[in-house]
Amino acid sequence: MSEVEDVVVHVPLGDRAYDIQIGRGLIGRAGALIAAVAPGAACAVVTDANVAKAHLGALEQSLAAAGIRHESVVCAPGEASKSYAGLQEVCDAVIGARMERGDIVVALGGGVIGDLAGFAAAVVRRGMRFVQIPTSLLAQVDSSVGGKTGINSAHGKNLVGAFHQPILVLADVGALDTLAEREFRAGYAEVAKYGLIDDAAFFGWLEEHHRGVFAGGPDRVHAIRTSCAAKAAMVVRDEKEEGDRALLNLGHTFAHAFERLTRYDGARLVHGEAVAVGLACAFRFSAALGLCSGQDAGRVEGHLRTVGLPTRIRDIPGWDGGAAAILDAMFQDKKVQRGALTFILARGVGQSFIARGVDADRVRAFLDAELDRT
Amino acid sequence: MSEVEDVVVHVPLGDRAYDIQIGRGLIGRAGALIAAVAPGAACAVVTDANVAKAHLGALEQSLAAAGIRHESVVCAPGEASKSYAGLQEVCDAVIGARMERGDIVVALGGGVIGDLAGFAAAVVRRGMRFVQIPTSLLAQVDSSVGGKTGINSAHGKNLVGAFHQPILVLADVGALDTLAEREFRAGYAEVAKYGLIDDAAFFGWLEEHHRGVFAGGPDRVHAIRTSCAAKAAMVVRDEKEEGDRALLNLGHTFAHAFERLTRYDGARLVHGEAVAVGLACAFRFSAALGLCSGQDAGRVEGHLRTVGLPTRIRDIPGWDGGAAAILDAMFQDKKVQRGALTFILARGVGQSFIARGVDADRVRAFLDAELDRT
Predict the structure, then answer these.
(1) GO cellular component annotations, sorted alphabetically (chains A, B) (predicted)?
(2) Do A101 and B241 contact (CB within 8 A), yes or no?
């Protein structure tokens, strides 16, 4: 593997501005990097049992070496921790570790840990500082950037939470070396999404360099940097998701419905896989509506299949839902505005746009066609 | 009772600016007032069983008359609802009532309901709109103004929460007519506090007009208006409590310790009573330190006793703690900064200031003297 230099993406959010640092070996250097942005602050590290085995020792050593007082909270792995009970566990542990307002909650893990720890940071003592150390590709390019934190409710995912920006994000690309291939691949769907939203050149680059991204090394850093910069730019334009930021949901209205209907069973479908199918659906739906060419829809599907991602509803193991069930699930999505269905559609690769008030009948017709073909 | 006109205190917090409207019969006019600031928004009313009996019917009627879709969530009365379980109950009920981001959580009740409903508003869908309709004097002059929301943790009160400003506060002074005398009196301690912090003229006015404030009518509106304006000014100067806003804690370092040591048993001591003893202690401690005259300390105590409030630690029914226990409880207070004790002390009536790093030995000596006298 070739040598890799750190790169930094700055997120210029005024008095909530912060840096995303991307590189190799950052977990082992985290203590010094955190001390530089928050001298004197103590750290409550929140992680899960799996990530703890792989990385907690190195992080604690690095915090100790920097003279940072620290305590660790180890949650059960999996989505179930993103619950009211999980929030209570983390908040009480952070408070019990005598952390004050100026101290830091550090999320060491994937998206679940980042969302849960970030929400705890937002609410303990009405707001502590927050550092993200994402250890999955999905978390590095998506959930650790942008300040969205939260837990799930009985009524749906991420329905309870806060916007709470980190003061620093450390994306250690070395942490991805130990990921299961399937998990890395799922995260790649979100990487490809940034190209599809508004950066056709990046999508073209991915078509050329995806092997390098999977292998690690400078191509991986470039892909993560480009993804973080794209998301950061959109977050800066629209921090509270009142407008443009919705473009980040390309493929997600479909994806959330698929996840809901497979009951968030990661054995069948993980989020990134749902996004891959959702991206392909968004382009085929756009083509069906005459918005983009069938060629573009085919190109999107082709690249996702090349890296091994699913692109068809029928690719989801054990799928048995019909168009009506998918539509129902879409109507329960929190991104529904006053009853109208909102989709992110596209006029081509890198040419996505927000389509409000999409007619449910056209969605149903599209889904019927999708489910009939093999 | 003489006729009363509405008065409005504006809280100029930039894009989070809002009005506090104070007057009689506001609950019955709430629908039209809410529709004026948030046209088209639905309302989830959060209240407790006691307040529901007295006021929920009138509020629901008023919302219906204004054509506002509304649902009500009725919690168990009492501090126990300010818990993780209470938060889950309210959040899930609000989500279940199909409230979206632009819709409103309405808190109808005292401080507990305001804190709980406000926190739910802060976190459901990462932030809904929020309207306060405080029905206790304490809530009208203190907790409904300033955006502090939250719940209690096993480690202490209000340790988990958010800053979330309302879009409107409706302080219906008529709602106070049905309060128990003891509860009204407890709220009065916070009213007196505003005079003691930085408004000697207001304290003098209270010494003259306290009967009018207790009776209702224009004097009550004036006292509430002056209190809200004082708190609002301090919140505007320091929204996130990083500086001056701490003056609002005059009497509270003592009060929180008394509440903790009586295990928040409202039968023995309610918050406002603890504040009354705390205010008297803050002035006597200031006198003991040679900061203010014994005459001023006596004047503070005299007025609080005149309206029937306790002013001595020994006034607390069944008190049995010593100076060491009180100091311990103070050190557990969340307002402790990196181990140093912070007090709000005074150089006279209306001349309070933040005293950081107060020597624990001087506090102990003062408490020993307090507990020895009868």
Answers:
(1) cytoplasm
(2) no
